[in-house]
Amino acid sequence: MKRCRKCGERAVIYMRQHRLALCKEHYLEWFVEQTARTIRKYRMFTKHDRVLVAVSGGKDSLALWDVLWRLGYQADGLYIGLGIDGGIAYSDRSREVVEAFAQERGLHLIVEDVPTLYGESIPEMARRTHRGRGKPCSVCGLVKRHIMNRVARDHGYTVLATGHNLDDEAAVLFANVMTWQVGYLARQDPVLPARDGLVKKVKPFFRFYERETAAYALLRGIAYIYDECPFAQGARSIYFKEVLNRLEEERPGTKLQFFLGFLKAKKQGAFAAIQEQAEGELHACEVCGQPTTAPGRCAFCRLVTPLTSPTPTPSP
Ligand code: AMP
Ligand code: FES
Ligand code: ZN
Ligand code: ZN
């Protein structure tokens, strides 16, 4: 049995990559401190920022909102209703969980419901446009990015935070390396500064392993949705996560080294030559005013038209 490094009590978690065992009390403390350090070290935001946390109802984003609240940041939540049922009422249950979380803590939550706003659920949009080879995930990603940025801009938030953890980030990096998507590599970063109408985006949990965010949520007694999105099954990212877990099993710390090594190489200018090109020039969409790479209508407006869009956001 492992003992807590701080107090010698029975440990509830052992993190092999840090050779660190902690009891419940000290783990909860450590997790919050580590998040605060990451936020400061990578200059994500300060107490003066108005942070919008995108919360899905899963463990990561609810744990993130909980930690930011405990640390005293000004953090409101945004839940996007996607209209996904999948036989388990996925979206309805997620919304209930997020609303209960906010209510219990007296936190402000913004809810944007896609079927109500645009007359169609995400799977319906994907079917109508034949996008994503039977899977709505690419349409879903596009719609979520659009709504997150619109809400953050319209309500004056300076930073948008998501619950992505190290397993998520390392799997995306792995996929991008396997196919040498240098443009994506140049843009992948836990901190994307604001530019041309895009709100600053941060991932304060990017150094935590998935089991660490899960442990925090469980030990804090946060009620969250255990199910993954029903469309996530068989996704390529899950395969890459499994491969990375096998490497991690043999060599603890592999995932962290892989991702931090990438950030270091990037800082040293490994992708500098293509950075500007990868980011591209941004224009305001002629319908909604949100930034888009090509002049004219943005990908979101092309997707939802001929359905009506909500009130256009004025250009900055
Ligand atoms: P995922 O792509 O489902 O792994 O989610 C990554 C992050 O995106 C989560 O940690 C949340 O911060 C955010 N997110 C995902 N789904 C939603 C949603 N329906 N509403 C708000 N934020 C979401
Ligand atoms: Fe969007 Fe699964 S398709 S969360
Ligand atoms: Zn202890
Ligand atoms: Zn648009």
Outline the structure in words.
With 316 residues, the protein is of the alpha/beta class. The chain is 47% helix and 11% strand. It contains 13 helices and ten strands. It has helices at 24-41, 59-70, 90-105, 114-118, 122-129, 137-154, 166-178, 182-187, 210-219, 236-250, 254-267, 272-279, 299-304, and strands at 13-15, 20-22, 50-54, 74-81, 109-113, 159-161, 191-192, 200-202, 283-284, 291-292. It has a six-stranded mixed beta sheet with strand order 5-4-3-6-8-7, with helices on both faces. Strands 1-2 form a two-stranded antiparallel sheet. Helix 2 packs across helix 9 (210-219) and helix 5 (122-129) packs across helix 6. The longest helix has 18 residues, at 24-41. The chain is globular and about 65 Å long. The model has no long low-confidence stretch (mean pLDDT 94). The protein binds adenosine monophosphate (AMP), FE2/S2 (inorganic) cluster and zinc ion (2 copies). One zinc ion (ZN) is lined by residues 285, 287-288, 290, 297-298, 300-301.
